[in-house]
Structures are given as C-alpha cells and as structure tokens.
Amino acid sequence: MHLREVKSGHVLLNGTDVTRLSVARHRTMGISYVPADRRHVGSVTEMSVADNAILGLQRKYTRSLFRSFVDARVSAEALVARFGIRSSGIDLAAGKLSGGNLQKLILGREIMRGSAALVVEHPTRGLDVGAVESVWRELLLARQEGKAILLISTELDELLNLADRIAVMFEGRIMGTVDPAVASVEEIGLMMAGIPAGGMLTTAAMKETRHDETL
What we know:
By secondary structure, the protein is α/β, with parallel strands linked by helices. About 40% of the residues lie in helices and about 15% in strands. It is built from eight helices and nine strands. It is globular, with a radius of gyration of 21 Å. The relative contact order is 0.10.
C-alpha cells in the first residue's frame, strides 16, 4: 500500500498497527486503495473490464488451480451495472474506457470488496462534471455505509464538499486540521503555504503593520 519506506509514525486500523504490513496483508485486513494514476497503477489497461473488476480478488474466484469464470463475470457485470460504467461489454479492454468510466471501474471494484477503509487519491482528476458527480456520490454513499475514507486531494471544492475533517499538509508536515463546515478558503490557503493553524492572525497583523509603515 505504501510507495515509500516508512521512516516514522504509525498507522492504526481499529487499534491494530498496520504500518509495516505488506499490501496483501492490508487487503486481507480490509484496506482498499484507489490510486491517482488510474491507467498505470489502478488498472491493467490491456486486460478486459471483467479481469480488471476482480484484480486483487483472483483467489476468491479460483477453485483449486482453475478460475471460476462464471462467478467472476457475474461479479463484473454487477459492478458495471451498479456504478453505471459505460462499456460495449465486459470483454472490452479497460484501456478503451473513458477516464471517467475507468475511474468508476476502479472505485467500484474497491468499494465492492467490502473493505472497512478506503484510501482514495485524487479521485476526480481529469474527469468531466458528470463523472465527478458520480464519483462524489459513491464516496458519500460509502461513508454513509460506515467505511472510513482517507481522501487525498488538491481540489478545495472536493474537500469542502466531501470531508468531515481536513488536514492540510505542507512539505510533508500537517499544518493543522479544520472543520470544513466552518473553515474558510483563506485559512486553508495559508496552511497550504506553510503557515500553521492559528498563524493567520499573526500574518494579518504583520500585513497591517507593513501597511501602516508604508503610509
């Protein structure tokens, strides 16, 4: 699940330390991941929609040494229907899907695993308005179903509409955590620039002082 070696800190899932576990162990413990790069990390574009729909779940659809193609196809068709994926069929190469439909395939696959936690990175980057609304709707539904979601995004509108809490990072450090219901774009912007939460008044005072000096 991690792309860099962990240097410090801990990640807990329901009280269990999962920081240094393998991707396979993360999967079995109920953590799903929707990467930012949908074509090179989140899918195998040369493979069919049906095959991409069960990526990471091959063992579930394997009997002895053979895959149960019927069960796998039924699952893929259910995913396509539920998430409104527009495709000429589940045998179509996933790479021929539009960006929005490929994203819905990846997101749907991870949601339908029944995972307890979802790590979602830049889920709507490069998508049209209709696809954005569809992805937002599915994320909100997953939250209502009790799934924990870590949403990583640079889109302020997305964060303000979806998040229960927003933690702003600058150069790898968290500058502060705010409630999106009361947070302002200016406050978040200052933290994005490296000014810690609570530093806004000091900054404003500095600007006022400089203004007085100029006058």
